[in-house]
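Journal club prep, notes for RB
We'll compare a predicted complex against what the paper describes. Inputs for the NAP case:
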Amino acid sequence: MSQLTGRVALVTGGSRGIGRGIVVKLAEAGAKVAFVYHSNQAAADGLVKELADRGLETWALKADASQKADADRVVETVIEKWGQLDILVNNAGIIRDGLIATMSSENWQAVIDNNLTSVFNFCQAVSRPMMSARFGRIVNMSSVSSEFPNAGQANYAASKAGIEGFSRCMATELAKRGVTVNVVAPGFIETDMTQAVMNAAGDKIKQAIPAKRLGKPEDIAHAVLFLVDPQSSYITGQVLKVDGGLTLGGMG
Ligand code: NAP
């Protein structure tokens, strides 16, 4: 029997990048995995098929994580289909970089809505079912940018710092019901989101990372798997950086 046999997981932003890596890892560990995508249906369908060919059960749902009604609908639908929801990974996120002096209100709000409000939406939707079940594992995706932001990331850094504060509060509220809430904060991971910055400054970035390589989605998925393991029941409200040593502050 695998580590997550009999468990049901929901991953937001599961069709590409880090979220895709998490879907694969949780499915390989034995969970049934539903995941949310926003617009790229081909990527979502491709992942479901690829995993079905390996005998793994996943399900793609189209939704906008920034919308409360969408989050409620997705959580209800998953529980209706599979009878339970044990694991939630809030991974969906976007960037809209720009200096504060010129950042549009639209770009500020879009990042707050997609990155932070989405976490509230899904966490609220799962909180009652998980409390009733006396079991739940929630992992929210932050970034090392919450503590160590680059210029031009005020909206993103604020959204990620918000996720960390939110998660600590939720961990406090739900600990006595068997529900843990933790955060993973990745460094530079090879995905579509980091493609542009890597094209511009890839070698410089690699040199700044003690591990001398970018992270892969699997590196983050591995940390998530550890935190959602039923045995990780005494770890809650924590932020786990997965960054190859990027934020250690050494001089190389
Ligand atoms: P990505 O490659 O751009 O993929 C983003 C995923 O989120 C896609 O599946 C996308 O679906 C989905 N998504 C975006 N907005 C959504 C919405 N409103 N509703 C539902 N789904 C939505 O991003 P990534 O690099 O894998 O990043 C994943 C998470 O890790 C983000 O929270 C990001 O901030 C965080 N992170 C990434 C890095 C990094 O180096 N890559 C570092 C630190 C933190 P569609 O394709 O359908 O639009």
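Talking point for the session: Residues 12-13, 15-19, 36-40, 43, 63-66, 91-94, 114, 141, 143, 186, 188-189, 191-194 surround NAP (CB under 6 Å).
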